[in-house]
Design a protein that fits this description.
This protein is largely without helices or strands. The chain has no helices and 2 strands. The protein has a two-stranded antiparallel ribbon with strand order 1-2. The chain is elongated, with a radius of gyration of 19 Å. It starts with 26 loop residues before the first strand and ends with a strand.
């Protein structure tokens, strides 16, 4: 297995200690009132980016 972080070398038996999970999003929904990203007032859906 490829070493992901150099500091893992200091952890004994790190290969059996960690579980690496890759997350691949399909969409990203964001509400940020400071930057004017609000939900739709009719559907209450947040603005979304589809990857």
């Amino acid at each position: 297995m490829k070493m992901k972080r150099d500091y893992w070398k200091s952890i004994p038996n790190w290969q059996n200690t960690f579980v690496l999970i890759k997350v691949v999003p399909k969409t990203l929904e964001v509400i940020n009132y400071k930057y004017g990203l609000h939900n739709d007032p009719d559907t209450f859906r947040a603005p979304a980016i589809v990857f």
